[in-house]
Structure formats: C-alpha cells, structure tokens
C-alpha cells in the first residue's frame, strides 16, 4: 500500500475538494482519497503507486493545478487496547 500526497492549487471550498476526489475515484483504483482546501493537499491511499502524469492530467482537467506529488509507504494503523506504545 502506498500513500500519495499531492499539493493542489486552486481549491477554495468543500465542493472543490469533492470535484478533485470524484475525478481521482473515477480515473483510478484507490482505497481512499481525501482533499483539504485549507491545506491545499489531496491524499490518496492505493495498493500500488498511481501513474503520476495521468493523475496530474486528471486533476488538472477539473481546473486545479498539481504543484507536486510525494509517494510514501502506507502502513495501516493497528488498533489495540492492550499494547500502548
């Protein structure tokens, strides 16, 4: 699993976040996608890294600008009542 963090310029409200999220969901197989207009970011959780050029063009087709993409391994947080660390 990977987490992709995109810097997205042009989002101003919740509807902007929804437009970006919908575009990503329609174009790619993702586990989760969340956007924040206040942070200017979109976070995507997927099984494999997504094609960055295709991702960029998909989002830019909705009217927003992708300023950067960062990919890192994603570890699902394990929840346990007994092992606090």
From TrEMBL:
Matching entries from InterPro entries are given as: HMA_dom, HMA_dom_sf
The record, for SUPFAM superfamilies, names: HMA, heavy metal-associated domain
| Superkingdom classification of source | Bacteria
Task: Tell me which residues make up the HMA domain.
Answer: 2-67
Q: Name one GO molecular function term.
A: metal ion binding
- Write the protein's name: Cation transporter
Q: Which organism is it from?
A: Hominiventricola filiformis
């Amino acid at each position: 699993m990977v987490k992709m963090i995109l810097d997205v310029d042009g989002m101003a409200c919740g509807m902007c976040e929804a437009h970006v999220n919908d575009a990503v969901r329609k174009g790619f197989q993702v586990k989760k996608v969340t956007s924040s207009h206040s942070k200017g970011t979109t976070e995507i959780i997927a099984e494999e890294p997504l094609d960055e050029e295709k991702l960029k063009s998909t989002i830019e087709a909705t009217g927003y600008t992708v300023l950067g993409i960062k990919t890192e391994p994603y570890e699902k947080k394990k929840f346990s009542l007994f092992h606090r660390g």
